[in-house]
Amino acid sequence: MTTPLAGASQTTASAPPQPAAQSRFGRHPVRRRWVLLALALVAVVAAAGVVASRLGSHSGWTSVWHDDFTGATGTAPSSTNWSMSTGTSYPGGAAQWGTGEQETYTNDPANVGLDGGGHLRITAARDAAGAWTSARLESRRADFQPAAGQQLRVQAKIKTPDGGAGYWPAFWMLGAPFRGVYTNWPAVGEIDIMENSGGTPATVHGTLHCGVNPGGPCNETNGISGKHAAGTALSAGYHTYAVVWDRSKPTEEIRWYIDDQQYLTVRSSDVDATTWANATHHGFFVLLNLAVGGSFPGPTDATTKPSSSMLVDYVSVSRR
Fold it and tell me: What's 234's DSSP letter?
């Protein structure tokens, strides 16, 4: 925030003529204009620095879309950027979101909201009867994809929850053709940028889902996946998770990163051309959710802690 200019002092009618009052920048209008211009430039540079910080140490990237979750404590995330999925399935879709999850998704502030410090908070809560609730967000935009010859980077800075067994935080993307149909998975493509199981809190998983289920060229329901084991639990602090979807090479590829360290690459040559095209040659939308239980992390147990939160500092989409 820039400091306001000092106001001019007032004189009475009977007082002798006085020199023009000086602001803290002096009495020269040209100098003042230059100072104001400099302050405006500083503000622009600072804003650019915020965007640049979302792109890590990589140069040449242009921001396409982002959310830094600025807002008052307890308010909902931007309805311009996000919609919230509620219940236990999409309309006409597979029960328990197709993965056997235990929770019911809600838009209750107890499950989802801004923390007032520039973060999105998604909390898994358990009631007295043992029922779990949580939240699931989807970007309203579903056109994220690199043009031919370009690269797309989708990145978020996240602190995973420390709830233990059954917790399943995720940052991921689904192919736009899935919207409104809900029965064409995995052919339309799913890119899991970050998944973490509460039972293995130091490990991040990345996956491309495609082809047919079960089996097929992408080994469903497992998908084509890789993982990276960090030295400590991911819940101990914030980490950046990203994919770079690269169409600048004759062989297209998707690369997975944690804190700018690459740990997985999937190439178009890893599957047949039709499978790759069906899974990637269209737009995607971004999801953030905190599931409880299900096929990936397994069920909760007596050690699972309710009311643990996934915190998201920002989400950014950029291209070059």
Answer: G
**Each residue of 27-68: pLDDT tens digit?**
444 455 554 444 444 444 444 454 444 544 467 999 999 999
For residues 218 and 272, give the distance between their C-alpha atoms in angstroms, rounded to a whole number: 10
CA separation, residue 120 to residues 1, 83, 148, 157 (Å)? 23, 14, 33, 11
pLDDT score for 59 = 75
Contact call for residues 137 and 287 (beta carbons, < 8 A): yes
Question: Do strands 132-134 and 104-105 pair parallel, antiparallel, or not at all (unpaired)?
Answer: parallel
Question: In the chain, what are the domain boundaries?
Answer: 22-54, 58-319
Q: What pTM does this model have?
A: 0.84
Query: How far, in Å, CA of 207 to CA of 172, rounded?
Result: 9
Q: What's the fold here for domain 58-319?
A: Jelly Rolls (2.60.120)
What does the alpha-carbon distance between residue 244 and residue 255 come to, in Å, rounded to a whole number? Answer: 5
CA distance 146 to 249: 12
